[in-house]
Input
Amino acid sequence: MLLTRIDHVAIAVHDLEAAIDYYRRAFGAEVHHREVVERDGVEEALLEVGGSFIQLTTPTRPDSPIATFLDRRGEGLHHIGYRVDDCAAALAAVVEAGGRAIDEKPRPGSRGTVVAFVHPKGSFGTLIELVEEPA
Ligand code: CO
Output
């Protein structure tokens, strides 16, 4: 089994402050990590849930993939991040199984991770992110 845990569940939102505030008031959730990822045009806030994270994500610019998603689909579940020990090996395995790589090879993600995305077409409608923790 190449997946070692659910790393995060990503939720696209219009207003990051409002979403953080809602999770705080509703569940007592606190922000574990917050980061602007310039490359992806997103700002994200991670809320820890039992060793995994809810990742609230909002666009920082109009050409961000999250902005496109929000325009087309509205707020909601965006992708699942699966933790793996070896991102390159997991990406090769998913492509071998018929998945469609968005990233041809692993690249830097947030928190110092190494990540690769797999297209929802070919993965039963779910955008998948493979997440390798820094050594
Ligand atoms: Co993610």
